[in-house]
Amino acid sequence: MYDYRGTVSLVTGASTGLGAAYADELARRGSALVLVARRAAALDEVAARIRVRHGVQVTTLPADLGRPEDVTALLEEIDRRDRPVDLVVNNAGMSAVGPFLDGRPDRDLDSIALNVTALVTLTHGFGRRMAARGRGGIINVASTAAFQPMPFQATYGAGKAFVLSFTEALAEELRGGPVRVMAAHPGATATGFFDRTSHTMDAAAADPADRVAARTLDDFARGRPASYPGRPAFRAMTWLPRLVSRRLAARLAGGFNRRSGVDRATNAPGAAGHTPTSSGRM
Ligand SMILES: NC(=O)c1ccc[n+]([C@@H]2O[C@H](COP(=O)([O-])OP(=O)(O)OC[C@H]3O[C@@H](n4cnc5c(N)ncnc54)[C@H](OP(=O)(O)O)[C@@H]3O)[C@@H](O)[C@H]2O)c1
């Protein structure tokens, strides 16, 4: 069993949603934290709440992980600190919504930069440092969306499929070694995931973020190569695409997103842009 006590965990996308829940749950289990997201003020609020609740050391490092220079600066900043990172939770992620050919592809490209490029760079950067130290772990937050093409969220589904395949391949490469990686596949989770779009989530059909976070960390502690931290129906939904043709899987997912209204959703104006942090940018 992985023991979180006395470790240092870095969580990306920790200013709200699942990332804030991962941070809280890691702190509850005794880990010190490094929290990363763009909005410095929101990060500071999460950090203050966690310090009061759990009494652990919490550092905030505002960064726009969609910018390669911020990702490099984050790795360099961690190298300057006296405590190395034991566990990285690559949680920051976003989705473009609506018909791919409508409008500009800015938010699609931003999501690839964040969900794929930043995740690979951080996994490589922290993974090498952990390998050199002889221990460490990385949790890559993918999604049940990884298991089939996602019409009207085409780049999101494709990006999460990348995270799934990449993390499974890496887990096998690293099997038996000192660094462990695990992919987490939440289903619908009650967060502000669609906040920068016209779409809204049915909160009643979504899992609470704190439960999803706790189950992910339980699975990592047990040494599982993958985590399905949502309700059982969400895991079952990942089996269906493996049993039918890829064409039918795409049809079914497209039908689901049409019924949910994602086909009519739009990305909020400016949603693709890089939100300035309220204090220093890394
Ligand atoms: N909610 C769901 O139903 C669901 C289901 C399956 C998987 N997931 C995955 O879970 C993860 C967390 O999603 P969530 O639902 O918690 O979404 P969320 O509420 O929108 O939170 C996203 C987090 O990512 C940060 N972020 C966004 N762009 C960033 C950037 N360029 N650089 C650094 N940080 C950035 C945001 O903070 P700032 O705005 O402050 O940067 C925020 O803290 C994502 O990978 C998502 O794909 C979510």
Question: How would you sum up this structure, described in words?
Answer:
There is one protein chain. With 282 residues, the chain is of the alpha/beta class. The protein has a single domain (8-264), classed as Rossmann fold, CATH 3.40.50.720. 45% of the residues lie in helices and 12% in strands. It has eight helices and seven strands. The protein has helices at residues 17-28, 40-54, 68-80, 106-133, 154-173, 209-221, 232-243, 246-260; strands at residues 8-12, 32-37, 58-62, 87-90, 136-141, 179-184, 226-227. The chain has a seven-stranded parallel beta sheet, with helices on both faces. Strand 4, helix 4 (106-133) and strand 5 form a beta-alpha-beta unit. Helix 1 runs parallel beside helix 2, helix 1 packs across helix 6 (209-221) and helix 3 packs parallel to helix 4 (106-133). It binds NADP nicotinamide-adenine-dinucleotide phosphate (NAP).
Question: What characteristics describe this protein?
Answer:
NAD(P)-bd_dom_sf, disordered C terminus, SDR family oxidoreductase, 8 helices, globular, single chain, 282 residues, Sc_DH/Rdtase_CS, binds NADP nicotinamide-adenine-dinucleotide phosphate, alpha/beta, SDR_fam, 7-stranded parallel beta sheet, Rossmann fold
Summarize the structure.
The protein has 282 residues and is α/β, with parallel strands linked by helices.
